[in-house]
Amino acid sequence: MSQISKVVLKDVDGNVLHPQTDAGIVSVNDAAGSPSNVQSEIQALREKQSEMANIDFFVNKGDVNSDADLPAQDYKNGWAYYVATAGVYKGQTCEVGDTIVCKADFSGTANDEDWYVIQANARRPVEGVAASTARNLIIFADASGKQAEDSGISIEAVTKKASIVIEHGAAIPRDDLRDDAIVFEKLA
Fold it and tell me: What are the sequence ranges of the domains in the chain?
């Protein structure tokens, strides 16, 4: 059994020499763990890079509608479908104009989680709290315009106050209004 020794080559002044070698004689393992050499592995990487450069990450596969549904099997990562008819596809409610994209190859069993939807009309989505009171108004929670929360004010309370203002004109029962209410007085 041979032993491998590391040798540092130096010139007469003690400077380390960096000898050139041929990549074909430097041994390494390939991706499978089998013996290979640096030159072969560099070539394999170049070929893989070339293949990757030619991959279409979104492959337009056409429309999805009441006559043409998404494939139930043999689908591939990157396939994209335009929603031409609103409906529920792969468990997700879609509107016309949305795009449904496959994010995983078919693996023997169809899975709704292999798909996601890019909404066409989602310009600036607003996120809300986990729970709120039904029929309460929402307010923005911060200056981002993306975070909403329950205001604690019901739509009924707002319509009651508005009807009092309209009904009574300038003679508004002040005790029915909040202290910070804006009151519009009827001009004579």
Answer: 1-55, 59-118, 124-188
